[in-house]
Amino acid sequence: MNPKNLDTYCQNTWCPGCPNFAILESVKRAISELIEKGIPRENFVFTCGIGCHAKIFDYLNLNSFYGLHGRCLATAQGIKLANPNLKVMAFVGDGDTYNEGISHLIHAAKRNTNITVLVHDNRNFALTVSQFTATSPKGFKGSSTPNGSIEESLNPLELVLSSGATFIARGYAWKIDHLKNLILKAIEHKGFSFLEILQPCITFFDNRQFYEERIYELKSPLSKEEAKIKISEWDYSDGEKSKIPIGVFYKVEKPTFEDLVLKN
Amino acid sequence: MSKDFSILIGGEAGQGSRMAGLIIAKIFNFIGYKIYIYEDYQSLIRGGHNFSQIRAAEKEFQSRKEKIDFLLALDEKTINLHKKDLEKNGLIIFNANKVKSKEGMGIEIEKIAKEMGGKPIMANMALIADFAKIIGLDWEILEGVLRREIKKEIDLNLKIGKRAYEISKNLLKIEKISKEPTLLLTGNEATALGAVKAGLKFYFAYPMTPATSIMNFLAKREDLNVKVIQPENEISVINMALGASFAGVRSAVGTSGGGFALMTEGLSLAGQSETPIFIIESQRGGPSTGMPTYNLQGDLLFVLSAGHGDFPRFVIAPGDAEQCLYYSALGLNLAWKYQTPVILLLDKDVSENTFSVNEKILNLIQPENALLWDKGPAFAKASAGKEYKRYKITEDGISPLAFPGSKNVIVKSTSYEHDEYGITIESEEVEKMQEKRLRKYETMSKEVEKLEAIKVYGNKKSDIAIVAWGITKGAAKEVAENLGIKLIQPIIVEPFPKDKMKKALNGVKKLFSVELNTSGQMAKVLNSQGIKVDGKILKYTGRPFFTKEIEEKLKKIL
Description:
The structure holds two protein chains of two kinds. By secondary structure, chain A is of the alpha/beta class. Chain A has helices at 20-36, 56-59, 72-82, 94-100, 102-111, 156-163, 176-188, 208-214, 224-231, 257-261, and strands spanning 44-48, 63-66, 87-93, 116-121, 167-172, 193-198, 215-217, 244-251.
């Protein structure tokens, strides 16, 4: 593999037209910009969980650890502790991090560990042929809930804000340049940066129209109180009227976990 | 007078019986005795009954005596529970402020502590001083030991001790032995120190008895330069540690059976991704929550087969602190040499009991370098100028390591089956990588035959042998010496040292296993190697064997 190229030789097996392609493109553009700015390419490293999102491991030619379902935030924190010079990203899915690994998300935010979390939130377990996740709307008809899910959805941004995340943003997979800028800001943030990416699942949960009718870009920066209001504007249900803000909701500087652990 | 003493000190949790026991042990250590302390405590913070039983002898013993020469009681329960075990000429020394006893010698230790302006827990200092006077120890020796052991409020403690010493009577004179004091360590302390000597930098753990004191020891000993991280659960523990290893830093995790059960998916990940990881599993009574502060050797088969899928691992089970020191260092080195999980299997008594340790063992330990891509002959020969492949197919199954952050290198580690670069594959080519890992296992098996995988004690020519592992080795060694039979202690259990075991069994006609579990797990391991035991001596009260128990049971089945 050409170490200068961000692509690998692996054949891509995402569904044709999947917004994961758009996320991959945004990531590559962001990383290329950061390399041009002088961050050595070998200093980037990412982890991923298991699910459609995680196939990015095979398509992105960077240092990486393909971890376990739900657990890759822990792996990412271990990498950052061992070598704080590395830029550590964790690509995770909604089932991956809001279901299986939610304790790691809460504690990573609480510690303000200096890593970047990018959630490919397609709001269902797609690789196992569609079951509901924590962010699926109530009534979601998946293969395990043919009559519709009976559980209310979780607003992950509210969760990470109350857990102590110091950077919270939301992007939309098909707004590639906007998303690229959010990725840049998230990586450049010193502390726990959380980027939720709304990713329509064109095979099992095609909500492109739903999103595109509701999405609008936030005017940042916001205070914590304003962030709370904006974060609560949409509760991840299928509500008819709610608008969906994207952009940076919250950003604050605090000492990072690694700084405190390694200070001596 | 025989130079083999048994001293039991007991009290409620919170009365400081453990600390007092350790100080008494250090006194005997100072005057040349070899030490073994058995710790018995319950899973509670106040009340209950805790005791430390010290064996101080000219010769090294690693089991407690059934009989007690000196019974030191901080509370009434201690006398009620242990009086029956007192030697004929044994002596009871008790806290006269809490205990009414017609036998033995009472001293008002709580009153002394109060009069001198001390806290209630400092009464144990008065008891120690009283005991020291009774056995004829010079005040200067006692003061020296106290000054070394007590960091907080030493002057006040000394004042209390001195007062008790002055009003106590001398009854006998314990002889000094002309030997140097040795290092006294618990198995957990020794495990920590061994790993540090082999280059440990990060220790990840979630509290779980009886492994917790490894974490606490490393956190307290800042001079050892190990960062102690306490993540949200054991699943996070192992996945964080794997991240640190992937980034090139030696890390270890520690837990007991329940926590290890939570780690098993991560264990399998370490096997598949070939990430070095050193796992300390200290057994306690199971299944499930079991008996948190008591011992069963019931996790051997679990650690041998834990994790889904086939992958190579080492399992090493030391039986005392000196072995913990040596094999902990060896274990961490092996994890990096073979890029695979190494499990150090302890048990509650190996972990928490205190042993005399020969410090010279530390000189045998050096961090061994892993096979690195950009250093050493591998680089010069095969890799110079070539592209790095994390999972390069090699003859011995070991692929050179590189770490993220290295120039011109992309390191891909993965939980999926993969090609040489680490890219996911599911074609029939997957056999190649599995065979590479199989070859690595063969290389590991050869290495085990070169290591001290098995120890043999007692009469090496006897045709009767017992097999014992972990803490059971201590009492079994005494049995072997008393009865003139052979003791075989398997230490490295996986890969199984076939040749070494064959050699150890040479001439043996009768073989018995001695274990602290209900099913004879080591006997099953031996059976899987075609070695049949003629009988099993099992105990599962949660307490380790007394020598006599093994001897009596053995005589019945011989």
